[in-house]
Amino acid sequence: MARLREVLKEPNFLFLWLGQIISQFGDKFAMMALVGLVSKKAPGSTYELAKLFMFIIVPVFLIGPIAGVYSDRWSRKWTMVVSDAIRGILVLAIVGYWSIVPTLKPVFPVYVIVFLIFSVTRFFIPAKMAIVPELLTEDKILKGNSLMHTTGMIASALGFGLGGIMVALPSLGVRGGLIIDALTFFLAALLLIPIKSRKRLNVKKESIYEIGRNVSNIIKQSVFDEIKYGIRHIAGQRKMHFVILLLFILASGVGASQVLLIVFIQNSLASITRDLGLLIMFFGTGLFIGAIVYGKLGENLPRIKAILLSFLLGGVFLLQFLVFVNMFANFTLAAIIALFFGAAISPVIISSNTIVHELIPEDAHGKVFSSLEVVMHFAYLIFMFISAILAEIIGSFNILLIVGIVFVIVGVLGVRRQRIA
């Protein structure tokens, strides 16, 4: 703790830290408010929720590569300040549209605003990740990054939990939750303004015309070329083929189950956002605990085996969650299982990232991670819509059971294959 306090004594980093905590909280608060909004207007509709998440995720493909390039060309501080301010204004735009059109019909303008909010977020994230070395001396950068990551996870969990509770309050509701969310973005922007960088960057100034002219080149160079470069490195590593397959299965399972789980929890526990937000908070806490435990005890466990055991345990806990919550509709029981579920799944991403670091040359890490992100988000989107459509035919509960069983089978068969090998 003493070392972390030394980092927080740096006033510029302190403002960044406070601002990003509030921004992280606001991001997740916004998610709960939007889920509440869609669920309020289309109760139990997995398809409408799938559309919402599509507009949240698509900016990763379309805007992420452009944002990554321009976060290096523009002032990172002002990129973050303007991003938070714009997100606050856009959230208020949803409230304004709702006031003008109380029925929210058509609802498409809301989805367009959601797309814009999360497009702006794609500019905020790389700027936030890149600014730390500008604010701290070299010997404090690792501590600063660690603190940002850890407290960011805590802020996210609290954003889901408190967001779910506050949006569910009759005196506040979804509309009030959106207003509070906008205020968190404005407050975060104000906290970032006093930051002064230790390093002076050569910020490249471009006119709107120049930005528009360069976007197509940026897409070609930063997306297609980098993905091809990353795929070439992946193709040369047999172990990476298996990792990609497992990540594809994981992303497919998450995509197939996320929207259905939201509706399942809402129906089983008879609340729109309160219990949902708290359960996500417990799941996030489990991820955090799992990361700490695996970081300390998992060094001697083979990476692939750790991933497979995570699939096995994750599938078991998902099945337990479905069966017990369906039978007893008890929040305490659901929260305990969600905590263990998060802890069980946590090693998957940690081990996958470590395998990339161990097998792929350092200069190709970014390209490989970009390629993996595209694969995972593609699988997520496809299976999210497939499951939302199939849910109308065979029911959400049955699809969720299938996802849990598939995870268990993948874990069992994979562990057996490792033993034979």
Description:
It is a single chain. With 421 residues, this protein is mainly α. It has helices at 2-8, 11-41, 46-62, 64-73, 76-100, 108-135, 141-168, 173-192, 208-235, 238-269, 274-297, 303-328, 331-345, 347-359, 365-394, 396-420. The chain has two domains: 1-197, Growth Hormone, Chain: A (Up-down Bundle), CATH 1.20.1250.20; 225-421, Growth Hormone, Chain: A (Up-down Bundle). Helix content is 85%, strand content 0%.
Average pLDDT confidence is 82
Query: Roughly how many Å is the radius of gyration?
Result: 22 Å
CATH superfamily of the largest domain: MFS general substrate transporter like domains
Task: Give the proportion of residues in helices.
Answer: over 70%
| Shape category | globular
The CATH topology name of the largest domain reads Growth Hormone, Chain: A
Biggest sheet descriptor: none
CATH class of the largest domain: Mainly Alpha
Strands, total number: 0
Number of domains: 2
Helix segment tally:
16
Quickly give the structural class: mainly alpha
Low-confidence region ranges: none
Which range does the strand content fall in? under 5%
Q: What is the first-to-last residue Cα distance? A: 44 Å
What would you say the CATH architecture of the largest domain is?
Up-down Bundle
Name the helix and strand elements from N-terminus to C-terminus, one letter apiece: HHHHHHHHHHHHHHHH
